[in-house]
Write a structure and sequence with these properties.
The protein has about 290 residues and is an alpha+beta fold. It has two domains: about 160 residues, C8orf32 fold, CATH 3.10.620; about 55 residues, no CATH class. Strand 3 and strand 4 form a beta hairpin. Helix 2 packs antiparallel against helix 3, helix 11 packs antiparallel against helix 12 and helix 12 runs antiparallel to helix 13.
Length: about 290
C-alpha cells in the first residue's frame, strides 16, 4: 500500500471520512494502479460518484453505457465524420445530453451516474460519456485536457478532429479552439500545442477530482473536500498542491494540529520560488496565534 493510502488510515480522518468512504478510496486506488491505458475510466469515475451515493450500483451505469453504444450505428468501416454524426445523434439528439448552463457548479454535474440520469453535465463528464460510448464501438476518441474546457478528439487517419461534447458534439477547427481559449483566459491567451494533446486516464480523473474539490470548497463542505483530496492522493501519492490544500481545509475546520503538520510538510518540500509559500506561512502564523 503506497504511503498516501497508509497515511489515510492513520491521519485521524475518522471524524470526517466514514469507513465506507475509506473502502471506496482503497477501491479507487486499486482501479488506478494498473498502467494508464488499462484503467477502466468509467468504473473509476463511478467510485468518485459513490462518495456521494454510497448505495450506487456501478454495474447499472456501466450497462447503460453499453446499451447506449449498441444504439450507435458506427464502426471502423464508416468515415470519421459519419461516426461522429452517429455518436452525436444518439447522445445529443435522442438522449438530450447537454451542458448545464443554469447551474454549472452543481457537484452533480461531476458524477457520472447523475450525468447519465439527469442528462446534464460539464465538459469533462460529458466527454467521459462520449469517450466511453465511442470506446465500446472501437472508435478512436480520446480526451483532450484543454484549459478551462475539456474536449475530445477523433484520431482520424487524415488528422485529428476536435469535438466539444458540452456543445452537442460540435466539431472545432483550431481557430475555434483558439477562440475558446481566449474566451476563458482573455484575448492575450495563445493556443499552445500541448493544450491539444490527448489526456491520460489519470489526468482525466485528477481533473474531475479538482472540479469537485473546488465545488465543495465553495459550499464550505470541508469533509467532502477532504474526501476528494484523499482520492487524489490515492491516484498520485506525491501531489504538493493537494498537501497544501488539505492543510488549508484543516485550518478552515479548526483542526489546527493537522493543519500545521500538512503545511509544514508542504513548506519543507516546496521549491524556493513557489508563490504559495507566503500564504502558507501567513496561515501558520495565524494558527500559532490562535493556539497561544
Amino acid at each position: 500500500m503506497p504511503s498516501a493510502a497508509r497515511h489515510l488510515l492513520t491521519s485521524g480522518l475518522g471524524a470526517t471520512i466514514s469507513m465506507n468512504q475509506a473502502d471506496l478510496i482503497r477501491r479507487f486506488q486499486e482501479l488506478t494502479e494498473p498502467e494508464d491505458d488499462k484503467i477502466n475510466l468509467a468504473e473509476a469515475a463511478l467510485v468518485i460518484a459513490s462518495t456521494e451515493y454510497p448505495e450506487l450500483a456501478p454495474e447499472a451505469c456501466l450497462l447503460l453505457l453499453d446499451r447506449l453504444s449498441e444504439r450507435v450505428p458506427a464502426g471502423p468501416g464508416a468515415s470519421p465524420l459519419e461516426n461522429i454524426e452517429a455518436l452525436n445523434r444518439v447522445l445529443f439528439e435522442q438522449e438530450k445530453l447537454s451542458g448545464n448552463e443554469e447551474d454549472y457548479d452543481d457537484p452533480r454535474n461531476s458524477f457520472l451516474n447523475d450525468v447519465l440520469e439527469r442528462k446534464k453535465g460539464i465538459p469533462i463528464t460529458l466527454s467521459v460519456v462520449y469517450m466511453e460510448v465511442a470506446r465500446r464501438r472501437r472508435l478512436p476518441v480520446v480526451g483532450v485536457g484543454f484549459p478551462g474546457h475539456f474536449l475530445v478528439k477523433y484520431l482520424a487517419e487524415s488528422g485529428e478532429i476536435f469535438i466539444d461534447p458540452y456543445h452537442r458534439g460540435a466539431i472545432l477547427a483550431r481557430t475555434d479552439c483558439e477562440q475558446l481559449l481566449k474566451t476563458h483566459f482573455g484575448t492575450e491567451a495563445e493556443l499552445r500545442p500541448e493544450y491539444l494533446l490527448a489526456a491520460t486516464n489519470r489526468q482525466i480523473l485528477s481533473r474531475m477530482l479538482n472540479n469537485l474539490k473546488g465545488s465543495y470548497f465553495r459550499r464550505a463542505n470541508y469533509p467532502k473536500v477532504l474526501t476528494m483530496i484523499e482520492l487524489a492522493f490515492a491516484l498520485n501519492e506525491d501531489t504538493l498542491p493537494d498537501l497544501r490544500d488539505r492543510g488549508m481545509v484543516y485550518f478552515a475546520m479548526a483542526r489546527y494540529a493537522d493543519a500545521v503538520r500538512d503545511l509544514k510538510d508542504y513548506l519543507s518540500r516546496a521549491p524556493s520560488d513557489d508563490p504559495q509559500t507566503k500564504e502558507v506561512l501567513r496561515i501558520l502564523h495565524r494558527i500559532r496565534a490562535l493556539m497561544n
